[in-house]
Hints:
The protein is an alpha/beta fold. About 35% of the residues lie in helices and about 35% in strands.
Amino acid sequence: xxxxxxxxxxxxxxxxxxxxxxxxxxxxxxxxxxxxxxxxxxxxxxxxxxxxxxxxxxxxxxxxxxxxxxxxxxxxxxxxxxxxxxxxxxxxxxxxxxxxxxxxxxxxxxxxxxxxxxxxxxxxxxxxxxxxxxxxxxxxx
Length: 141
């Protein structure tokens, strides 16, 4: 089983976009037998868990141990960067945690695809529109 990490901004909540983009990536990479590695934070991480449930995939949860203090998120990201083999990121504006994860994966020279969004429009506590700002591949296998 190939380990795929789906990570990104806590502000991103559009499951339909994530569903489509993850399917696109898995198809491009020729992956079918996958397990999802998740940091278990709200937003993209939990959407990755929802994606896994939709397709009957196993999830490897890697939540941050916040008793370690502010470095907990970075430590969790290092664990995921070492463990997973492929990475799909969703970033809204300037997400520091997402940027940290991108850097960790890039340094390990693992396949990484990023979808950047400049803003998320929310009305009545429901995300109604996600504006795609940029889409790029950092590294292919």
